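Internal QA ticket QA-208
Title: Verify multi-chain structure generation after dependency bump
Assignee: T.L.

Test input:
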Amino acid sequence: MKKLTTIMSLLLVMTILITGCSGGKTDTNKKILRTNNSSEPGSLDPALAQGTHESWILDHVFEGLFKKSEDGTVVPGMAESYTLADDQVTYTFKLRDDIKWSNGEPVTAYDFEFAWKRALDPALAADYAYQLYYIKGAESYNNGQGTADDVAVKALDDRTLEVVLESPTAYFLELTSFYTYYPVCKEVVESNPDWAKDPSTYVSNGPFKLTEWIHNAKIMILKNENYYDADKVKLDGIEFAILEDENTAWQKYLGGEFDFLTPLPQAVVAQLKAENNSELVIGGDVSVYYYNLNTTIEPFNNVNIRKALSMAINRQTIVDKITQGGQLPAEGVVPFGMLDENGNEYRDGVGNLIEYNVEKAKELFQKGLEETGFKAEDFSQFSILYNTSEGHKKIAEAIQEMWRQNLGIEVQLENVDFQVKLDREKAGDYQISRAGWVGDYMDPITFIELWESSSSFNDAKFKNDRYDELVKTAKSTVDQKIRMEAMREAEKLVMDNMPIIPIYFYTQPYAQKSYVTGVFKPLNRYPVLTYADMNK
Amino acid sequence: MAKYLAKRLIMSIITIWAIITITFILMHSIPGNPFMKEGKMPKVVYENLQRKYGLDKPKIEQYFIYLKNILKGDFGDSMKSRVETVNDMIKRGFPVSAQIGLQALLIALIFGPALGALAALNQNKIPDYISMVIAILGISVPSFIMGTIFIQFIAKNVSWLPIGGWGTFNHTILPSLALALMPLAYMARLMRSSMLEVLNQDYIKTAKSKGISKAAVILKHAVRNAILPIISVLGTLISNLIVGSFVVEKIFGIPGLGSFFVSSISNRDYTLIMGTTVFYSIILIAMLLLVDIAYMIIDPRIKLTKEGR
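Actual output:
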């Protein structure tokens, strides 16, 4: 018994020894906005970032040549002006003369040249290097054939940056606001390759600077006094907790430990929406939730079958009863919010390309069955493949039931691990699969190009020569009229063939306490907290 | 004793090698890879990544490179984090998980056997039923439900208990409790049955008939013998507790090691899968050895050398 007591007390001592936590104190006089970044960034180096868990922080500590404004357009950021030469591919950016890094050094055109070439360096192996392929020579440098000198980005002097593109790109200015295009401090990065791993060596040029990073727990950014627009930044800093569990995060928001929160649990959004809670904001988004149909296998290679499957889905019911977050039934592959050549809503120019019509669906389905020789019973050997998640499951069940009622078929549901789903999609080892895509920039081509035959995300394996031609047209001119015409035709074409079944357009709901003001959400970005204020 | 330890050490190394090999084979035979994601992945970018992490080399070569590095104590670069190596992740995650785990163990060790002994001494009476209801609840209610209940009903109403996150001792209280319940209940049940068995042994009757006080019989003879089965499960239990629980860490937002066991697999982060597996094996093997030694100290009948085993 004595020995047992000894073991027990040893354990106790060990516990106390390890329990050497420090208390997290926040200065109450400072305006620190507290929120949650749902997962640990894989890196805070702009060249290596690849998702919102990284970009939400980066968008607050860095700034590109252009930046997103409150009304959704892009406005000059680090650049003060630019000219586009008559060849439509040569941009010359003039940088502001009052821009500094957080260490006080001036931001120069050389920093941009260095940053872009660095992101393309095959040895760095950046996931998002392809975002820079618009620049002449970029892709061949990234695949190891070309050299850094062949990449057509060049600093002419401290304040002048010249970029030559592969082909005319109408949305290039918007691209310069994207994180892969952020500059990095040449001097710092060259002298310390590990600069982005430690807040003490981290140097950035945006409204905030990184001051603390406790892995998997917390990221703190404080106001950067060297930022040219610092006068307009009212917050002293932003504290991002790193909490993966949406429900715990929501409880912390309720308990007053967060001032701002996104994403929110689905059920919470539905409830807040039902009670018209003023803390809930349904932020817009440009992304589409859809089902791939594997067009290389029977009977999904039959267009009537594909159209019938789409037509038998009541999307309104799905957004009203299942997703309940203000999502909109899909009207095509391009979500709302993109503008056309006249500055009007792109969608209005194409109209609703998706129909819910049970009678017509039955007719087309019959026709498709006759053409392929399949019977309705045969569909019980096919399944909807989705990655394991409660949300995807509910939608799949609803669609399964709609197809059962409307077409008399019984497809199966198959949930697998995310990586397994991706693997099977790439290999074409599926019949129907769930997918989603968030637009990289505010131009319909970010969606349209996905179903070009050589696209790496064309899992439906759609192949149509006319479509490829239209994508090419839209990607090789800056004449918006020609581009938009081509994209409208392309979207009608893909919806006429229905290799994918768009289901709904996402929203990004967020919650903010009543004392928080000044937050805005560009459609294809996370909410911008830079100009937020708190009046407690 | 020294000879026994040497033998155990060699066995342990062989076991770990076997674990590395099996994990390596299994890991590479599941579909997917660390760089696949929902979205565009141009071939060039993919090949650059494969090359950077040496995945373009033949599997057998990768295996030997891995073995070589592990001998140097290097678990490699995580394929998902460009900030921390696998060693960094283990180094920072383990103390966090171990703290929660040890606190949970302490709670379980204090209350579990006590509850079990109480139940055994009052067999088929009210205290027995109450203890066993607690034990059954503890075993059957999963920790994600317990965690959620704790957050919902305790953290929200007790102002000094944070809802989740990490930083102060107060942050560790609820997760330790949530983690403790299951081992506590398990120990209570184990203690109850072994105590009942011991209480019917002849030597207890002898002790009683010798006129020793009831308290002395229970403490000196019954508990000491009944506690042995608990010691034997401690090795596995401690290892499981100190490497962290995926569920508890996720719900309470704790930056521990537990979450890596699951996330590394779903991310196909090969180096992290190997790192966590090997690290866990080392802990488990060490704990089992410690338990065997502790067993020998507490129960003089057990000898680790020759005739004893």
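Spot checks passed. Chain B has 13 helices and no strands.
Status: verified.
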